[in-house]
Write a structure and sequence with these properties.
This protein is an alpha/beta fold. Among the domains are: 5-49 and 220-299 and 440-490, FAD/NAD(P)-binding domain (3-Layer(bba) Sandwich); 104-206, no CATH class. It has helices at residues 13-24, 62-70, 105-115, 120-132, 155-160, 167-172, 178-183, 203-212, 222-234, 277-284, 295-299, 334-344, 388-406, 411-414, 423-429, 475-490; strands at residues 5-9, 28-32, 44-47, 50-53, 82-84, 89-92, 98-101, 215-217, 238-240, 245-251, 254-260, 265-267, 270-273, 306-314, 326-330, 352-356, 371-379, 415-421, 462-464. It binds flavin-adenine dinucleotide (FAD). Flavin-adenine dinucleotide binds at residues 9-15, 32-35, 40-42, 55-58, 244-245, 274-275, 279, 307, 309, 376, 430-431, 437-438, 466-467, 473-475, 478.
Amino acid sequence: MKPKKIVIIGSGFGGLSVGCLLAARGHQVEIFEKRDQPGGRAYTYTFNQFTFDGGPSVITGPNLLEKIFKAAGKKPSDYFQLVPVNPFYRIFNSEGVFFDYSNNIPQMQAQVAQLSPGDAAGFKKLMEALTAIPSKKPGELPAPQTRMLDLFKNAPALIKLGNEPDLYEFVSQFIQDEFLKHALSFHPLLIGSNPFNTHPELLMNMKMELETGVFYPIGGTKSIIAGMVKLFNELKGKIHLNTEVDQIITQRGRATGVRLKDQSIVQADLIISNADTVHTYQSLIAPALQKKNRNQRFKNMEYSFSLFVIYFGTKRRYTDTNLAHHNIILNAPYKKLIEDIFYRKRLSPNSFLYLHMPTLTDATIAPEGSESFYVMSPVPNLQSKLDWTQISRSYRDQILDYLEEHFLPDIKANIVVEHHLTPLHFDQTLNSYLGAAYGAQNIPQQSNWFRPHNQSEDIRNLYFVGAGTQPGAGLPAVLYSALFVDQLINK
Ligand SMILES: Cc1cc2nc3c(=O)[nH]c(=O)nc-3n(C[C@H](O)[C@H](O)[C@H](O)COP(=O)(O)OP(=O)(O)OC[C@H]3O[C@@H](n4cnc5c(N)ncnc54)[C@H](O)[C@@H]3O)c2cc1C
């Protein structure tokens, strides 16, 4: 194919990955990023000598990172170092009892036998059911679903998963203990979906994690972003930071370039948007061109929750606690509290917390004798009308009081640097519709062919990469979306 001039809007994992893939094929690629740093949700906050991963910290799908670097004849290990994290997650209940989730199945089975002896056999069956889901063969890549017929591509895996309506019910066939049911079905919450309303298909993510592991990049996720930026520059790609795209310019239904906020125009043969899908259609494209992807379509969709995130550095270490690198805290009445966030759009501060303690694996990201944490709490998206300019402080206090009482003694007196994100960050800084932290929920009616397509049906030389398009949110899915767009452009 003749080299094309390609403009990418946004430098999240999706934008950078597809940028590398296309630059490696000899295309002339430029990325325009609104913020002052590349990475999007994988932004890095640095205060004094503390480094905080802004977003993704559970790194899965290393084989996909390898695919992207291999397209340029490189290896990820030439650019950053991934180390395995074990356990993958330490999952706590309200009483502080924990379950270590990892790919050490006998060890997990022994814990199940101790926590709920009657569930040991069921746990074995659950693991067998996971193994029965067909795996992708090495090197095999799923394809984007552009035709309704493509829905049948997932049929073999779906048949193996049976008729259970949701992931929680699927796990409940095998497990009786309520805490273990929750611990073995929480995964959708890490990508903005509801375990009580998500198709068991998402078990495929758990299966992938069990097969390929969970990793941490030394130095933090910023090392992967820096590695991708380095590769992109070596491939002669250009990144423009602090440069927001204001409009996608079209002529006779085809995109011809973008207009930037400063009104300058950049011509292109094709455009890829890594910005939020709804933002792209609603704010960057003239209404007359929104034929298949109208406002009403997006209004009818269901969006993920938003997040309240506290990044905090302490002047002492907390290695004398029973915390692990990735901690999941589930509090009763868990189901009701999760439904408060999704359906009743009510705050539910400590129902589900993810507490990241990376200094256990990598002490270089904080000053000596210090700890660098982040805690993430799902909150209703902006459909709730909560006024975050008013409630942030008290919400922060509720979470830190809880952590102080149960996990981190005297934490408030030991914090030396602190920063918060609220839903307003996702809405205003990242241009995400309703401040949803993970875009549209991965529910059946918004997955596969039903999810916004990677190639626009309205403007054929406009493509989409990232969490809002197929296959969905989370790092592995976003990397797949980049491989999808590369396939579509170069087929
Ligand atoms: C707090 C948090 C924790 C997470 N933890 C994990 C985890 O542990 N593991 C995991 O796999 N996933 C995790 N995720 C999900 C994962 O981070 C995202 O799914 C993924 O990073 C999204 O990448 P993306 O390519 O879709 O784009 P984004 O990261 O959303 O980037 C889009 C970029 O587009 C830019 N942009 C928007 N509009 C414009 C415009 N008009 N002009 C120019 N630029 C524009 C934005 O500034 C942004 O940089 C987490 C998410 C969050 C928020």
